[in-house]
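> forwarded from #structure-qc
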């Protein structure tokens, strides 16, 4: 099973690891700082070095307990070889800011309107989130934009914890999505808290304080159904 270093330290930029599986242009490591895509967050990109040379990491995905790194060409590493990895930090940090921005958006709408999330997706500094809303207007979007930027200005700390499943699910409203997507065999639940605003289960990478996000701008709103409305955001400095 691959140890996900990024879940305990989102600011870790490089790391050492051992190769455990090689399959053409894909390899598994015993530990990695690369985030595997999931929960709407894209995977990290970056570089791996070892006796087999230098490889670009194009995509990272999790299958079972293993994290597969897709390289730019077939790997020549032997199982057991030591490698050094470095994530594309500029891209990762933008994704961290974006993911935290979505949690701020979700937290504000849950707090002030009691509305669940029905979907979401992101890329660096741009994202969309869908909500179980019947009505959505430009005035509503403007009000939400003001509220989320006030939360950024409040400089709220962000804390990550891992809790036993039974303890985690005693927290009210821990799952903010309309459908609980957490598999029943997950016995340890990772939570992300924006202190004073939001607390929910989440596996992604985040900044340490809301002030790192920058400024959130709502750049679009649209209807995706009778009670399903979408807000699109961009993040600036």
């Amino acid at each position: 099973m691959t140890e996900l270093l990024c879940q305990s330290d989102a600011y870790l930029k490089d790391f050492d690891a051992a190769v455990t599986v090689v399959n053409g242009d894909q390899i598994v490591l015993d530990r990695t700082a690369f985030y595997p895509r999931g929960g709407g967050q894209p995977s990290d990109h970056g570089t791996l070095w070892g006796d087999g040379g230098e490889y670009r990491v194009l995509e990272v995905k999790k299958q079972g307990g293993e994290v597969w790194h897709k390289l730019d060409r077939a790997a020549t590493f032997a199982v057991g070889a030591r490698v050094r990895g470095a994530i594309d930090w500029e891209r990762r940090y933008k994704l961290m800011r974006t993911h935290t921005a979505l949690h701020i958006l979700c937290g504000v709408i849950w707090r002030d309107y009691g509305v669940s999330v029905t979907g979401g997706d992101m890329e660096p500094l741009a994202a969309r989130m869908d909500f179980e809303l019947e009505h959505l207007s430009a005035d509503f979007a403007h009000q939400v934009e003001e509220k989320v930027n006030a939360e950024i200005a409040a400089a709220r700390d962000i804390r990550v914890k891992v809790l036993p499943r039974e303890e985690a699910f005693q927290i009210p409203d821990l799952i903010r999505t309309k459908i609980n997507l957490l598999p029943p065999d997950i016995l340890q639940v990772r939570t992300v808290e924006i202190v004073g605003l939001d607390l929910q289960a989440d596996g992604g990478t985040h900044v340490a304080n809301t002030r790192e996000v920058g400024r959130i701008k709502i750049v679009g709103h649209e209807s995706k159904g009778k009670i399903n409305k979408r807000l699109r955001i961009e993040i600036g400095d």
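QC bot note: DSSP finds three helices and 15 strands in the chain. Residues 89-113 form the longest helix (25 residues).
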